[in-house]
Amino acid sequence: MRSWLTILIVLGVAIVPAFATVDLTLYNSFALVDNNGTTPLEGIASLGDLVQLILVGPNGVIDPPTTGTGAPSVDDTVLFTTHVGAGLPTTNTGFLVQSGILYADSFGGNSNAYVRFWNSNTTANATFFGNSALFTLPSGDAFGLAEFDFVPLSGSPRTANQEFSGGGPAAVPEPSQLFLFGLIIMGGWLYRKRGKSKATAAIAVALGLLAASHDASAQIPSPVDVTASSPILNFDGAPLAGKNPVSGDTNNCLVQIIRVGANGVADLPNLDGTPGGDDTIAFTTVIGQGINPSVEVSGQFSTSFYPPPLEGSEVYARVFNAPTVAAATHWGQSATFTVQNVDVFDLSALGLQRTAMPKGVDLNAVDAKGLTYYQELIANTNPNDPGDFFAVKQVGSDNGSVPVNQVSVNGRAGRQYILERALDLGAANWSGIVTSAVLNADANLTLSDPSPPNTPKAFYRLKVTMP
Length: 467
What we know:
This protein has 467 residues and is mainly beta. The chain has helices spanning 175-193, 198-213, 373-379; strands at 2-3, 21-27, 50-55, 77-83, 97-104, 112-118, 128-131, 135-136, 145-149, 162-163, 170-171, 224-228, 233-234, 254-259, 280-286, 301-305, 314-320, 330-333, 337-338, 345-346, 354-355, 357-358, 392-395, 406-411, 416-422, 431-435, 443-448, 459-465. The strands form 7 sheets. Strands 3, 4, 6, 7, 8, 10 and 11 form a 7-stranded antiparallel sheet that branches. Strands 14, 15, 17, 18, 19 and 22 form a 6-stranded antiparallel sheet that branches. Helix 1 packs antiparallel against helix 2. The radius of gyration is 29 Å and the shape is elongated. The N and C termini lie close together (7 Å). Residues 1-18 and 166-218 have low confidence and may be disordered.
């Protein structure tokens, strides 16, 4: 989407959230397998083999599960329970991506934990379990988000390799170790049986070493983190509704993450609010997800999605002021974001500040200020605020107080600004002089002509674009 107009804006005040909790996404980049060393643990999005995130107690060691019940013993405690298959569209692959694991900031960087996974969806039906190595719960980033891949860690088996029965747990060798041991024995047998087959024995041993060190399991990419670091406001200025934990009785406003289609542009929604053109919904979440449960209304959220969109693809967010598109009266939209898997997709940095666009209204219609809703969207101005315009804040002056080749504007997050120049006002004579970077926050922006023409007069104009 690209457009331009002439400019006035009230500088927005950025609200920096104070996260009291960390929202952890726990996942495994290599599959968890059963005690035979080859069969992936089972799980679908709604149900699968049991996975526990367990806090280590003051004794500092991984204590075995309690005989019979499978509960952590001695001084260990369960922090979170999930299952294989959580967060994934595929089934029975041994993977999980669990977001929304909340813990206090004070735990991050200070508390040790481990993952225990079972070969059944209950401890009562399980025959084997496995433990990850100990790790320190990560601290949250500037958005309160953290990620942790618990496999592989040094010393972390991916196999449910510890027997669980009425007699309690007993450690058994990893299947790869058993395979290596068997090949070494076979190599020795071949060497004794065939005195001239030293090469055969050596190959067998080498194959065993290769099997023990090589991992043929498929890997999964990291999830993509999505957040709103500043409150998203409704058209009336109130923060959007939504609290955590999310349940059936909460009124959490809808967030859509939308893929840009083959035409390469973020298409405007249809009048009923559904994605327009060739764009499609990649994920949905809600306002309040991942936010401190003690906060009733924040207008914010933090979460992760898997599988992530393809590296280099473009996505954007559309937020509605109700839990469903059908119930919404207004919506807001971010600028586009290029997926890089290492960056946080922050709606606030991409200019999604409010749900100011009325649903069901043609965006080419003119609002009370004489601008189209589409122009308001491009400039990131509020059609419901009579004093909110895209307008030049300051221009050069003949008395020298401001250089004559300089233009200032109250810039908006998620928008890019272009200074153009012409020597006369003919429509075809404008040329781009300076293009700003896309702003990641509201800020005063000054653009200057680096090579003013040696002419009696020159004309400048400013464009704003929505990437």
